[in-house]
Amino acid sequence: MLVLILSISFFGSVNAQSIACPENVLSELDLVNIVEAARVSSNDLPVKFSNYHTKVTRLRCLYILYEIETSESSEIYQTFTIDPYGELMEYYVNKEK
Predict the structure, then answer these.
(1) For 12, what's the count of Cα atoms within 13 Å in the CB-facing half-sphere?
(2) Of 9, 20, 34, 64, which has the maximum CB count within 10 A?
(3) Which residues contact 60 (CB under 8 A, 6 or more apart)?
(4) pLDDT attached to residue 67
(5) Is 47 inside a domain boundary?
(6) For residues 73-92, average pLDDT
(7) Mean pLDDT calculated for residue range 43-69
(8) Per the domain annotation, does 15 fall within a domain?
(9) How far apart are CA 60 and CA 32, in angstroms?
């Protein structure tokens, strides 16, 4: 049993280390343009705010684009998860107006 547990943990760690992101890095402008293009082709995506700013974070190879409504009292934002090849994977809106 101990050998099985050790082998699973060993092989799992090797696989996690072998993941490499593509060399092509998307800029914040690239990500904004990907979301805008997706909005044109799909009615499912949330509309952009009238006043907002963007922020980008990375989660391994994925990009998370935040659209944050610019307002003193607002805590509303929406996120768009984009894969390293420029495909929009999912979106999230934290609050509805």
Answers:
(1) 6
(2) 34
(3) 19, 21
(4) 94
(5) yes
(6) 91
(7) 92
(8) no
(9) 19
- pTM for the predicted model, two decimal places: 0.75
Q: What pLDDT sits at residue 8?
A: 53
pLDDT > 60? residue 32: yes
Q: Which of 37, 75, 77 has its CA nearest to residue 55?
A: 77
Which residues are bridge partners to 69 per DSSP?
52
Vertex 19: Cα angle to 14 and 21 (nearest 5): 160
Whether 8 is covered by a domain: the verdict is no
Taking 3-state DSSP, the helix, strand and coil percentages for the chain, each rounded to the nearest 5, stand at 30, 30, 40
Which amino acid is residue 40, in one-letter code? V
Region of residue 47 (phi > 0: left; psi between -120 and 50: alpha; otherwise: beta)? beta
Q: Does residue 5 fall inside a structural domain?
A: no
Cβ contacts of residue 83 below 8 Å, gap of 6+? Answer: 61, 62, 63, 89
Per-residue DSSP letter, 43: S
More confident residue, 22 or 8: 22
Q: What is the mean pLDDT of residues 14-41?
A: 85
